[in-house]
Design a protein that fits this description.
Layout: H1 2-28, H2 34-62, H3 66-85, H4 91-127
Length: 143
């Protein structure tokens, strides 16, 4: 019984000692007002949007467009044909890159189809003739 009391007393003293330093640190900090918190949130959101915009611009600069994309796909398809004859370490990389290029091509084709749809839909709304155009469905391009 005396031993348990000794441990309990030590725990209380230790807890009091440690909580004293925590309370003084938290008591010294001035709580932020609602306006300060909202201003900081707005600043962080603007910073996040700016970084996202920079990332998107960098991606768009390096991404091939239109005819370039078709030429690059043709080049990688020729490399893939060579992989059928002679297997190398680069074959996996060629297949992966070709898959990404097909994806980019499909994304571009879908964006063009959506633009065409919006133009056709506006023309249909103005004239009211015929059947309304159907919204395009994304498709997976086949090699």
């Amino acid at each position: 019984m005396g031993r348990n009391l000794k441990y309990l007393l030590m725990a209380v003293v230790l807890g009091t000692f440690l909580s004293g330093s925590l309370f003084t640190v938290s008591a010294q900090k001035k709580p932020k007002t609602k306006e300060e918190i909202q201003a900081e949130i707005q600043r962080l959101e603007q910073e996040k949007a700016k970084k996202q915009k920079q990332r998107n611009e960098e991606i768009e600069k390096t991404r091939p467009q239109g005819g370039d994309l078709n030429q690059i796909i043709e080049r990688y398809e020729k490399l893939l044909d060579q992989c059928a004859v002679k297997k190398t370490d680069r074959c996996a990389d060629v297949m992966y890159t070709l898959g990404n290029l097909y994806y980019d091509q499909g994304k571009d084709d879908y964006a063009k189809a959506v633009e065409r749809y919006s133009d056709e839909f506006k023309a249909h709304e103005r004239s009211g003739r015929g059947t309304a155009p159907k919204h395009p469905i994304p498709t997976i391009p086949s090699p």
